[in-house]
Design brief:
By secondary structure, this protein is an alpha+beta fold. It has one domain. The chain has helices spanning 7-17, 19-76, 85-88, 103-109, 115-119, 141-145, 202-205, and strands spanning 136-137, 175-176, 194-201, 214-227, 233-243. Strands 1, 2, 3, 4 and 5 form a 5-stranded mixed sheet that branches. A hairpin with a 5-residue loop joins strand 4 and strand 5. It is elongated, with a radius of gyration of 33 Å.
């Protein structure tokens, strides 16, 4: 007697043996999808941090630009609104005779031999002196510092800096934004930008120059909101050479 097996009955056993393979495949797909999700999340976090850092650098650069303009007004004897400090009595001022007091005075102030304008500068930037003498350096300050003067200056950003030569410690002073111009600064959680000014008398400090003229090399540092693990802030340093003429 012969028995014939139905086709559907012959397929039952192999099908039941493949259930485990389907489970493993599904787990692999889940793992791949999970990895892709984690990678996408990490990429988003990286882009967010990158954008935040870029924003912070932009803030620092803008603040450094503010400090450069503030230093120029300091040199010209102007308040932040363009009025002469001698006329409106700024909170702090440079010594009398070292800044023009009016538009008429400014017309000839920088175009003649004006010794007082340069005498206010000090090799040590007025360290330990009255506020009106601080932050102004001579052309020989870099030699006395043993490095560019801004490298040994106190930017009050949590980083210790000192000069390496005869000036030594402590760090030489810088000027906070608005000190001599009464310019307001209302950015929450951001340090005020700072600057220093090197006063160069072309007749005394430059070779083969017979013209009496003052040039001012301004170094400005602006800060962002981010603070590093060592307490240092995001910062941008800008420099310009300014002539009052």
């Amino acid at each position: 007697m012969r028995f014939t097996q139905h086709p559907t009955e012959a397929l039952k056993a192999p099908t039941s043996r493949q259930h485990g393979f389907v489970l493993v495949t599904a787990l692999i797909f889940l793992m791949v999808l999970s990895l892709l999700g984690v990678m996408a999340l990490r990429g988003s976090l990286f882009e967010e941090r990158f954008a935040a850092n870029d924003r912070d650098l932009t803030v620092a650069r803008e603040n450094a630009e503010l400090a450069l303009r503030d230093a120029e007004r300091d040199i010209l004897g102007l308040r932040f609104d363009g009025q002469y400090c001698a006329a409106v009595a700024c909170t702090n001022s440079r010594p009398a005779g070292t800044r023009p007091v009016s538009l008429i005075d400014a017309g000839a102030f920088w175009s003649v031999v004006n010794v007082s304008a340069g005498d206010v500068a000090r090799e040590d930037g007025g360290r330990g002196q009255a506020l009106g003498l601080q932050g102004l350096y001579t052309a020989s300050s870099a030699t006395a510092c043993g490095m560019p003067i801004w490298s040994g200056a106190d930017w009050q950003d949590g980083v210790a800096r000192v000069c390496a030569n005869t000036l030594g410690a402590p760090a030489v002073p810088t000027v906070a934004y608005g000190t001599f111009t009464d310019a307001p600064f209302a950015q929450q959680g951001v340090l005020r930008p700072r600057y220093l000014i090197e006063v160069i008398n072309t007749f005394d400090d430059l070779t083969n120059v017979t013209i009496h003229k003052f040039l001012f090399r301004i170094t400005a540092v602006g800060f962002g909101r981010t603070t590093g693990s060592n307490g240092a802030r995001t910062s941008v340093t800008l420099q310009s050479v300014f002539s009052a003429l």
